[in-house]
Hints:
This protein has a single domain, classed as Hypothetical Cytosolic Protein, Chain: A (2-Layer Sandwich), CATH 3.30.1230. It is built from three helices and five strands; from the N terminus they run βββββααα. The chain has helices at 53-61, 64-68, 74-86; strands spanning 8-10, 17-19, 23-28, 34-36, 45-50. It has a three-stranded antiparallel sheet, with helices on one face. The chain has a two-stranded antiparallel sheet with strand order 1-2. Strand 1 and strand 2 form a beta hairpin. The longest helix is centred in the C-terminal third of the chain and has 13 residues, at 74-86. The mean pLDDT is 92. The protein binds zinc ion. Zinc ion is lined by residues 11, 13-14, 16, 50, 52, 55.
Amino acid sequence: MSESKExxxxxxxxxxxxxxxxxxxxxxxxxxxxxxxxxTNEIGRSAYICKNPDCIKQFIKKHKLKKALKYSNAKExxxxxxxxxxxxx
Length: 89
Ligand SMILES: [Zn+2]
């Protein structure tokens, strides 16, 4: 069965497990900055969120990024939240 080979991750807003392709990835890079959908060679602690507008809205409103990545740089979080908001348009 090929389905077991699909990469699955949990959305940090609704906590449903989905295929990687259905999710937005946010990674904390080595230099301490955050990046949405980084290149494969940019490794770091990551959080995933559905492309579902309700999940994105909840993720931004409740500042879930801070907890998901154990991250406290408010300026970087704000930057990413603005980039996520662009997915809603
Ligand atoms: Zn979700």
